[in-house]
Amino acid sequence: MTARTRAVQGAGEAPYELRAHAHPARLILELWQLPGQSARHLDRPKWIAALSGRPLDLVLHRILRRLGPRGRQIARMRPGARYSLSLTEEEAMRLALLFRVLAPMRVPSRMSACVTAIEEMTREETAYWLGLVLHRPRPRRVLAALRMLLTDP
């Protein structure tokens, strides 16, 4: 952990980080939880979720819009570049749930419905579903149920 990361965490910001990797063929976004005041049980960064490929291509504009001016660096990345961005807890929760729900999906209309529904969720709903997903040994059924609820007409 760098001194800058420790200073940011000491300032009261939640220890979450969005890491972007621009490979020649695709962009990969990863969400990590960093050790800090609210995560004393961690001794090193913990991977939470990742998104790449077609699912990311379909929702990247929404993610960048949610990140605001901080997301501009991600949009301008060149192949081989890496970029990291600190996130608040609420931003990290929404992105983690979004990444986990969208990763295996392939149908654009269903993906769009899921993204819209996750954006409209309250903070408590997001935390509830993300807790179910992260703290189960096999969250596949929870994610399948959530996808069905979000895309049901």
How many β-strand runs? 4
Derived structural class: alpha+beta
The description of the largest β-sheet is:
4 strands, antiparallel
- How would you describe the shape? globular
Order of helices and strands: HEEEHHEHHHH
Characterization of this structure:
With 153 residues, the protein is an alpha+beta fold. It has one domain. The protein has seven helices and four strands, in the order H-E-E-E-H-H-E-H-H-H-H. The protein has helices spanning 3-10, 53-67, 72-75, 89-102, 108-120, 123-134, 140-151, and strands at 16-22, 27-33, 46-52, 82-87. The protein has a four-stranded antiparallel β-sheet. A hairpin with a 4-residue loop joins strand 1 (16-22) and strand 2 (27-33). Helix 4 (89-102) packs antiparallel against helix 5 and helix 4 crosses helix 6 (123-134). It is globular, with a radius of gyration of 15 Å. The N and C termini lie far apart (46 Å). Mean pLDDT is 88; it is low at 1-11.
Task: Report a brief summary of the structure.
The chain is an alpha+beta fold. It has helices at 3-10, 53-67, 72-75, 89-102, 108-120, 123-134, 140-151, and strands at residues 16-22, 27-33, 46-52, 82-87. Helix 2 (53-67) packs antiparallel against helix 4.
Keywords summarizing the entry:
single chain, alpha+beta, 51% helix, four-stranded antiparallel sheet, 153 residues, disordered N terminus, 4 strands
Write the topology of this structure:
Layout: H1 3-10, E1 16-22, E2 27-33, E3 46-52, H2 53-67, H3 72-75, E4 82-87, H4 89-102, H5 108-120, H6 123-134, H7 140-151
